[in-house]
Design a protein that fits this description.
about 350 residues; alpha/beta; Rossmann fold; two-stranded antiparallel ribbon; disordered N terminus
């Protein structure tokens, strides 16, 4: 008989303690092939095809608002899944663990318990306790651990190395944040429309921006983070697993309401949503250890620079037709450093509310 999941949320100390045990090497497991593991690998491969848009299991083929059962049923089960997932979020800073490898074929993420027993040899691979699936009778193929793990492995191969960020990415059910007709594409590495000419960012860019923001010389510890552009609430949910407090501003009222609707069933207590002009930030709550912009302006608004804590990091897309991801770090009260990371493409940053 399974033990009931711990009540959400955990404290950060519990989270770090549990997550420190959740990432260990699994290279041997990835090379071990038995009839049992082969069948599980085949099942995970099938689940990955579902995420890529398999017509036979596509959520788009179900009635709108359902994912392998009623949307209410999935939402009811989601808090328990997020609760247990929070146990699995990793903390490389806690024990100095090696982060995710840069995409070798032998790298694995989220190995099963029996695989962990066989393969904790290499410190250059990692694993995480699996996220408990939804009840079988109500489970969507999109909710399976294998689908999310496949997405995270692709992100790791693209160069994201922060184990805690990758674990948070696997923990959050992305399909609950996209439109039902697009649910079959929830775990491909692409941005998807969420209405009002806005998008949910691709998983890689979400992980990359959070990884860069965490690398701030404070062992990745983030007490207070500000997100500009809540959208559907997905990135805020991922941030909630790596920061003590997440503040997120959305300027489009229907999207602000959508984010609240998406996040409410998960009962995440450390997210504060705000409707308003993101270019103004939240001076009443500042300073912030990290700030992320999910929209691109020609420059970073000065108000946001002023609300960044000394030693804090701001990550933002900057530009018009041609955009780059930019890192700004506050060195002192009157000094900021800037670095260009890579090309990107975001919706434009706009002032005011709509």
């Amino acid at each position: 008989m399974n033990k009931p999941a711990k009540r959400f949320p955990l404290t950060l100390s519990e989270l770090d303690d549990k997550s420190a045990r959740a990432v260990r090497g699994n290279a041997a497991a990835s090379r071990t092939h038995t009839p049992q593991t082969a069948s599980r690998n085949a099942a995970d491969s099938a689940a990955s095809r579902v995420a890529a848009g398999s017509a036979s299991n596509s959520a788009a083929s179900r009635p709108a608002g359902t994912l392998g059962g009623s949307k209410a049923a999935n939402n009811a089960a989601a808090p328990a899944a997020i609760n247990a997932a929070r146990d699995a979020v990793t903390s490389a800073s806690r024990r100095g663990a090696d982060p995710a490898p840069r995409g070798g074929e032998g790298s694995q993420y989220g190995a099963r318990p029996d695989e962990r027993a066989r393969g904790a040899k290499s410190g250059n691979t990692m694993q995480s306790s699996p996220v408990p699936p939804l009840p079988v009778e109500r489970q969507s193929p999109l909710a399976s651990e294998g689908v999310r793990r496949a997405m995270v492995e692709r992100v790791a191969r693209q160069g994201v190395r922060d184990a805690k960020v990758l674990a948070a990415l696997q923990a959050v059910p992305r399909h609950l944040f996209v439109q039902p007709a697009l649910a079959s594409q929830a775990y491909i590495d692409a941005s998807l429309p969420i209405g009002h000419h806005q998008t949910i960012s691709q998983p890689y860019i979400v992980a990359r921006m959070i990884e860069v923001m965490r690398a701030n010389g404070r062992d990745g510890k983030l007490d207070r983070v500000l997100e500009i552009g809540t959208g559907c609430g997905y990135q805020a949910a991922v941030l909630s697993l790596v920061a003590a407090q997440v503040y997120s501003i959305e300027r489009i009222k229907p999207l602000h309401e959508l984010a609240k609707s998406n996040l409410r069933p998960l009962r995440i207590p450390n997210i504060r949503l705000q409707f308003g002009d993101g270019m103004l930030g939240l001076p009443q709550v500042a300073p912030f250890d990290g700030i992320i912009l999910a929209a691109a302006g020609l420059e970073v608004p000065p108000a946001l620079l002023e609300q960044l804590a000394i030693g804090g990091r701001l990550v933002a897309p900057v530009g018009g037709r041609n955009q780059v991801l930019q890192l700004i770090e506050r060195r002192s009260k009157f000094e900021w450093s800037t670095a260009t990371l890579e090309d990107c493409h975001f919706v434009p940053l706009r002032p005011g509310t709509a």
